[in-house]
Amino acid sequence: MSSVVETRTATPLKTPAPLKMAKEEEPADMNIPDNYVAWTLKTQKPLPPVTLNNWWKELNYLSLSILTIVPTIAIIGACYVKLRWETAVWSVLYYFVTGLGITAGYHRLWAHRSYNASKPLQYALAAAGAGAVEGSIKWWSRGHRAHHRYTDTELDPYNAHLGFWWSHVGWMIIKPRRKPGVADVSDLSKNEVVRWQHRWYLQLIIGMGFLVPMAVAGLGWGDWAGGFIYAGAARLCFVHHSTFCVNSLAHWLGESPFDDKHTPRDHVVTALVTIGEGYHNFHHQFPMDYRNAIKWYQYDPTKWFIWVCQQLGLASHLKVFPENEVRKGQLTMQLKRLRETQEGLTFAPDVNELPVISWESFQEQSTKRPLIVIGGFIHDVSDFMDEHPGGHHLIAKNIGRDATTAFFGGVYDHSNAAHNWLSMMRVGVLHGGTQHGLDDKTVPPSQRLRIARYNELGSGNASSTAWSDGEGLLG
Asked: What sections of the protein cross the membrane (predicted)?
């Protein structure tokens, strides 16, 4: 989700642009081939692997410097400068200010356009985001859009399949083996606030990253050194790794309640350390939604901040994905997990695979082993007679008979569990033996809400039409 320094971008396949685009920046993905991903992986060779012999040549020294010097300043400074309570409070407050510059600004406003912001709010978020020192809006959004478009592939700049630490910081410290996939940011090139920040980015990161937090502490309560060490360096280190966790922790810890096709996951711990960006599975499914957490009790201060800005007239057009579609995503995953549970169970034999037996043949074969008809199915109860809670005699007296009425309430209205267990004893279908009105009882309760794949829906559970009378039942 975040980074420190700008790196190279992908070069799309070029073809002549339409005339209407001649006067403005052409979208980067305007003329890419339809098989862009496969084409790119085939035609653009990655850099050679990093080895013990070349690793020092493959480091991005600017990013490495920022990610090591800042925490070093914070650690050494903390050994010599006492932390005052005022500075501690200010450091936490400024952490949220600059963090929201990334989450509410860079991420939800500019990368995903999930709401509209007034010019004052845009300038404030652009300045605050610069204080997080993670690259300009335009560059950061280009990388993040590529991440969403090519999630978990070689064209994803922070591909989670390459490991937790690669997604967290590795992709910034080591030169990328492959250029990130093409992603259009021509809309941001037209935004005057984005252009302003991009032009003055160096001055903004110095001012918002260190001078402002130091000046507030210095002018406010005379703690210039503490402002620099704690509200500046230490706070910056926390902001970095907080937002980096959206690339790493949010793809590693938690569950996938909306879709498990890719690695993004939801977890409250990730939300707590990322200012609300921890419900990442939802976000990857519905990236245009201004929310990350959809339940009132889920931690998402970024959502609350945007909502408050709307109430103050600073934000508008907050995008929300249709509730019906969100619930479809949840239902899909619930059904998938139920299907996995279902596939681990053994159910009654397929009706279409059972032999169809006449009443006369059933009675004849009942003299050789204990067979009972219930609901049109012939059951072999030889392994159950001594286990029957009602006693052996109730089973014995119905051998060779139709016990449907007795089973379905005549003697005892059996439970769903009993019905399910009985279905496992089916060995045949009585020809013409299903009584009128018992159609709903021919399917065991455990299978009435069976989870079926789309290609299974046409088969159904119709009675067998095959005729296999005689000794086939005992075969």
From this structure: 61-81, 88-109, 200-221
